Amino acid sequence: MKNTAISPFVRLQSELASFAKARDWEQFHNPKNLVMALSGEVGELAELFQWLTPEQAADFPQEKKEALAHELADIQLYLLRIAEKCNIDLEEACDKKLVLNNEKYPVDKCYGRAVKYNEL
Questions:
Q1: Residues 20 and 63 in one domain
Q2: Which of 1, 15, 34, 119 has a CA-to-CA distance to 84 between 20 and 30 Å?
């Protein structure tokens, strides 16, 4: 029996499309512009971590968690919008990439090592 439940990605993409259409923003939502906007959001995320020590980053300050959640959401929403505009099923792409990463990074070769697959 096929699962007919709507994917959270598809639901969010539909809501994003409606949001943009209601504001006449579709004219601006081409892949290039969306990637540029995504880059800005990643910069805002990086700014939250910029001067934290590794220990502080691992135990992110509670008073900044809402800002962190907003930046992560902005990034996810832009990724979903870019995927939609480029006709990429992001959920399927993530599933395939996980399989590929498992092949490229076998546990017995990369365990405890922070190197690229071609250096294993």
A1: yes
A2: 1
